[in-house]
Design brief:
The protein has about 170 residues and is α/β, with parallel strands linked by helices. It has two domains: about 45 residues; about 80 residues, 2-Layer Sandwich (Alpha-Beta Plaits). It is about 35% helix and about 15% strand. It is built from three helices and five strands; from the N terminus they run αβαββαββ. It is rod-shaped, with a radius of gyration of 31 Å.
Length: about 170
């Protein structure tokens, strides 16, 4: 058995050790919180270019976002659907080609069928991203034009992405 003085010293060192451990944990959490906040608030540089277009309003004088020519065809029984969707594509910056009923008279059960040729896979991707459930079909055309054929399951285009002009940064 130890003396009362030794027992008091041991208790005292335990309390000091607990305080030091608690202070070290608080310091670690403070540093972690600071790093997390600076990471969240940091500017990661200039915005990266994306394949998603900005919305071009029909009344703006801005150049189209895409140079792809899209033919809008209706393969449904809904009258005027191709013209309505063509206006929406035009508002998103696409160049509009023919607007009519499907010249192939195919039955399209999906929301849309995106027909493209050997030189138009990127353009077809940009067009097919405008609607959920679009089916891409490669055909024999040589140019980069794309046919967007509205099917029976078509409800609406995906919401148009919005974007803001990047603010210049001093680097």
């Amino acid at each position: 058995m130890g003396s009362p003085r030794t027992a008091g010293m041991t208790r005292r060192w335990r309390v000091i050790r607990q305080i030091l451990v608690f202070a070290a944990v608080l310091a670690f959490l403070g540093v972690a919180f600071y790093k997390a906040m600076t990471y969240l608030k940091s500017d990661t540089g200039s915005p990266k270019a994306t394949s998603t277009p900005c919305v071009v309003s029909p009344n703006s004088k801005a150049a189209p976002t895409y140079t792809v020519r899209v033919n809008i065809f209706n393969a449904t029984n809904r009258a005027g659907l191709a013209a309505e969707v063509a206006q929406q594509f035009k508002a998103r910056g696409f160049l509009i080609g023919k607007v009519a009923n499907d010249p192939h008279n195919r039955k399209v059960t999906a929301s849309a069928e995106v027909r493209y040729g050997v030189n138009g896979p990127k353009e077809a991707l940009a067009v097919s991203n405008q609607v959920s459930g679009a089916k891409k079909v490669k055909d024999t055309r040589k140019d980069a034009s794309v046919d967007f054929v509205l099917g029976n399951a078509f409800a609406e285009l995906k919401p148009a992405p919005t974007c803001t002009a990047p603010t210049p940064t001093n680097t």
